[in-house]
Amino acid sequence: MHPRTLISAPELAASLDDPGLRIVDCRFDLADEQAGARAYEELHIRGAVYAHLHNDLAAPITPQTGRHPLPDPERFAATLGRWGIDNDSQVVVYDGGPGAMAARLWWMLRWLGHDKVAVLDGGFAGWQQHGGSTISGVSHYPATVFQSHEQPGITLDADQVQQGLAANELLLIDVRARPRYRGETEPLDKVAGHIPGAINLPFEKNLDAQGTFLPRETLAEQYRELMDANPGKQPCFMCGSGVTACHGLLAMEVAGIHGARLYPGSWSEWITDPNRAVAVGDSPD
Description:
The protein has helices spanning 9-15, 35-42, 53-56, 73-82, 100-111, 123-130, 158-166, 178-182, 216-228, 245-254, 266-270; strands at 6-7, 21-25, 44-45, 49-50, 90-94, 117-120, 134-135, 170-174, 199-200, 234-238, 261-262. Helix 5 crosses helix 10. The protein has 2 domains: 6-135, Rhodanese-like domain (Oxidized Rhodanese, domain 1, 3-Layer(aba) Sandwich), CATH 3.40.250.10; 158-270, Rhodanese-like domain (Oxidized Rhodanese, domain 1, 3-Layer(aba) Sandwich). The protein is globular. By secondary structure, it is α/β, with parallel strands linked by helices. It is built from 11 helices and 11 strands. The strands form 3 sheets. Strands 1-6-5-2-4 form a 5-stranded parallel beta sheet, sandwiched between helices.
């Protein structure tokens, strides 16, 4: 099992009885915030606990934040302890399939200094196709203590994004769907468009037709090409609220390219200040 990126359904199935393994179900539907919990109670991977995006993986929204602000690190560490995750646990996270929600928890664990975490490639859909063991109801691990070791410098705030773009030092990658980036539609936020200077690379570009991640070599080619076209710039991922952006960070890690950052507030935070510029259309300028 690779501690920092992906695990396949067969690999997880072979490790399911490992006493040090902790599995977390991150299924979530932005249009129905209880749908993931219902699906979990109906059927989940044997042993898995449930992580609710709003309640567990985000802090309450304020007028100055985006839709999914990061929780207080110590509060999140306490949540991990309640789930039975300590600093020695091998964690596997999954969602319904493409990994966009699971990648958020993958990144948050690394944010607190825990590298022994992998995303289940293909998610619950892939697990079922493999014939993996499932159970209904609610599962628990014995509670423990997780010690937070917050990693400095892996996030940028709105001012740092603005300064980095102005200095031409930042490669800001917006992973939202192209119509949202272009400002043609906006189903979730009050303003449509994108941050001037951001480029668009929808997170689905990291996946194949089956919803699993592209091979490491293909992802490396995709991101190296992007980096080579923007020499000397620091890559930073964003989306609508800092969730699916983590999919890009995961893909870069799979590709063997390290050091990319996250703008956690993303578009939904950016637009809380009317003085921040907004762009529409294809041009990143």
